[in-house]
Amino acid sequence: MINQKYLGMLDNRNVIRNLSEYATKRSKEIGEENVFDFSLGNPSVPAPESFKEVSIRLLETMAPLKLHGYSPTLGIPEVREKVAASLNRRFGMNYTADHIFPTSGAAGALAHALRAVSKSGDEILVFAPYFPEYNPYIEATGATIKVVPADFDSFQINFEKAEEFLTENVAAVLINTPNNPSGILYSEETLVKLGDLLTRKSREFGHNVFLISDEPYREIAFDGKKAPYVAKYYPHTLTCYSFSKSLSVPGERIGYVAVNPACEHAEHLVPMFGQISRGIGHNCPSSLIMLAMAETCDDTADLSVYETNMNLLYDTFKELGFTVVRPGGTFYIMPKALEDSSIKFCEKAKNYDLIFVPADAFGAPGYFRVAYCTDTEKVKRSLPRIREFVEKEYARKQ
Questions:
Q1: With 0-12 CB in 10 A as exposed, 13-18 as middle and 19+ as buried, what is 152?
Q2: How far apart, in whole angstroms, are the C-alpha atoms of residue 358 and residue 341?
Q3: Which candidate, 101, 133, 324, 357, has a CA 20 to 30 Å from the CA of 314?
Q4: What is the DSSP letter of 261?
Q5: pLDDT, tens digit, 9 for 90 and up, residues 157-206
Q6: Reported pTM
Q7: Which residues are within 8 A (CB) of 40 and not within 5 positions of it... i.e. 6 or more apart?
């Protein structure tokens, strides 16, 4: 008999993917240029030339057996060394290769980190709004997800509720900054306060509460700011990263877990990740992509387009009377819908071929997410359609 758990999951598919598939179907009917698909967070800028050049050089010069052979279980040593050196140089850390574990993207990083610091029956705390795929990521480990309600005024951490939810059953806190879906960058003040809270609670409980920091959007920050490096604010931090956004190579599935050297059991965690890989099928990312990433890990694609797109949409939503917190990074913005039900709001938007994602699944009912990782020209063309939608459906005019 087939596994009934996964059969049941077919009736609870990812709302983002469902809407993306709808947009694809609609594009075939009326033309892609006429559908304004803001559903899927798929990077829209080319990878940097350096990544292509390094990949070509490796293919032309490296021995095929080394380039395409199995990598060591814990990753290619020189790759781990280069990632550690990059993090130390940019963020003032003191990682060594022994603290770095290459993974198949941020999802693979989270799969290892969650299993390493929790067991069946434990609780993992997340802060709304949060990425809804955290639900199956956490449930697959046997742990239980606990969602702290959002601070809708700022989308920073709701510390009053965090204090209430952070009990001795919590093995780890999982955060995402810059944040999908809100686009909010956790401030240094927020991270200091979170570190203090976790330190105090760890002493109270008699065991360390781990912090898992999911940071695939770390390089996409606006207004000339840089995202604070979370591991600097709490020692027991596992940093999960993907190069999908910074290098704009999501299909290559490459990332890592970085274990703070000051973390409890820091010397054991990376070897543990190697053992975890044996059971979850995330073992050994592509050797070619690992090597190409290692040589370009300080580079980024041209990420400036996302800030341009954000400003266009933010200004338009504000002009039209939406309640919206200005993003500090990522390629998402999350306004409040113009009626109580964001699901009904997004269904009405579909009639204008505007594909928005209701944020109920993100822990933010009444809000909707707009993924603006698309051509700026198309964002500009969407603005009159957004105005038309709002004016006809909600009688709001500039």
A1: middle
A2: 9
A3: 133
A4: T
A5: 999 999 999 999 999 999 999 999 999 999 999 999 999 999 999 999 99
A6: 0.96
A7: 16, 17, 19, 20, 371
**Largest interatomic CA distance in the chain:** 66
The structure tokens listed for 9 are: 């999951």
Contact 39, 20 (CB under 8 A): yes
How many CA within 13 A on the CB side of residue 8?
A: 4
Give the tens place of pLDDT for each residue, 225-275.
999 999 999 999 999 999 999 999 999 999 999 999 999 999 999 999 999
- Describe the strand order of the beta sheet including 332-333 as a list of residue ranges: 332-333, 368-371, 357-358
Indicate whether 398 pLDDT > 60.
Answer: no
Strands 354-355 and 36-37: parallel
- The one-letter amino acid code at 367 reads Y
Cis omega (within 30 of 0) for bond into 136: no
DSSP for 332-369, written as a single string? EE-PBPSSS-HHHHHHHHHTTTEE-EEGGGGT-TTBEE
Domains of the chain in sequence order = 4-47+302-394 (3.90.1150.10), 49-296 (3.40.640.10)
